[in-house]
Amino acid sequence: MWAPAARRVRVHIDKETDTELDAEGNGYFSGIAEARSGDRYRFRLDEQERLLPDPASRFQPDGPHGASQIVNPHTFEWSDRTWPGVRLGGQIIYELHIGTFTREGTWTAAARELDELARLGISVIEVMPIAEFDGRFGWGYDGVDLYAPFHGYGTPDDLRRFVDRAHAVGIAVILDVVYNHLGPSGNYLREFSPAYFSSRYENDWGDAINFDGDDAGPVREFFAANAGYWIDEFHFDGLRLDATQQIFDRSAQNIMAAIGIRVREAARGRDAIVVAENEPQDARLLRPLDEGGFGLDGLWNDDFHHAAMVAITGRAEAYYSDTRGEPQEFVSAAKHGFLFQGQFYAWQRQPRGTAALDIAPERFITFLQNHDQVANSVRGLRGHQLTSPGRWRAVTAAFLLMPGTPMLFQGQEFSASSPFLYFADLPGELALAVRRGREEFLSQFPTVVAYEHAGALSDPGDTRTFERSKLDLDERTANAPAHDFHKDLIRLRCSRRTTFCNPRPASVDGTVLSPGAFALRYFAPGHVDDLVLIVNLGPDLKRSSFPEPLLAPPDAQDWYVLWSSEDPRYGGTGLRDLWPGGSWSIPAESAIVLAARARLEPRQKRERRQHRDE
What we know:
With 614 residues, this protein is an alpha/beta fold. 27% of the residues lie in helices and 18% in strands.
């Protein structure tokens, strides 16, 4: 136990008397006490009457204020010994929240849905934070016991069974972890040492973590060891680091680099990935360690999300205000990842991003929905509820076929009717503070002000807010056209993986076709297997010709429609002839994938047309 704030430390196991720990110096205490797996224990600092849970507790069966439980991590029988781990290239990520993914909100219930996710084509699950937090429900970003899986979702072995089952069906699992702050209720770290926190930096959610000040060494080890712990004892395939712009560290080796190293060590020869959320989109996180970078694998691409949402809603407010949703933004995102790589960003009145033109496309995590962005639509509305069906299908096709690594949010694949709202079950004044903070954050959106004035914003602490956010998985069947649409798109992406997911530089190029339409051409070796994605978010586009070489088919070949978002199976109206009389006719609010085949002679064309008419 590291407890430099105490002169004396004792451990209290169940109803036994306290066992004194010996002082080792530098704030460390150690000792031996008889105990067994399942026993509960707490610590007594100095002469305090109050007993405290273990800062590195493996399980808190009664929540963060109760006793810690001894867990033997070596009794679980894993079946994934041949599991190779995961690399980022070619993956389809699925973000989920265990408490709302199923009605039961448990690991056991979620495990029953893994086969269906595998059939959909999901290859990586990203689980929202699970570290023990106060209350019956929450998003998980207010965790306080970083080593203890939230007791409300099940036991640690239930979590192990979930990961083991995911590996059995071919799905990797990464965990969202929060290393930028701790929650406001149930956090006892300061009792053991104030050095866990720093007053040198301003943090949006409370005290910053001390990674570079006095006594930072044990703090750094606490967090780096936690990163390795999830990989070692639970076989997670990597981590997603939350809000890394709020992780402050001026050490010679940034804590994020240390975490990446620890994750790969803990994987013991398996492949593992570390991706991050970084609001300023600092490409340094992706650069190799020997080039002064942090050596992480991927970053969330907010720029793509913002451009896409403006394109389908027409609303460019708050942090959306620097994007226009124009075709060129989609082309640039496909070619270069981040849209802002150091230019001035009017919303923040400062430059945004850093140069990233050399970063491989797969390292940009693209999305149309995630937990934050759905909840920030005030009523928790999904993207398909904010625009027309045709436009939503078209922008979804662009998202799933972009060179970046796509990430779906739970329920997106079947157009879930349930919202995803912000919920947090905190006590007393904290609940009021959370509600006020949520209202203040959303007030940056002018369209939200009316809801605030009417008192229509959902109360984060209301159980009904949590219950409304749970998925109705029967909608997979009820909304079968949407589910089939996503499944077919994922299958198309994976079947042409070497083209759609080509990591080579300049493997994709694009052009603007109209104020609402663009085309991307994916280059294959020799160009025989090139593909063209045409996305039209505007009205019907009719042109006698396009003076654009990206639309020219390979030599001695013609284009044909490989896939269309207007397929009636998806709720579309069907696809008319794209080339009536040799001209172009691209339907409104549609996405089309073109592939090439040998050019037909005029007679063959007539026979094919006649056969089609018959």
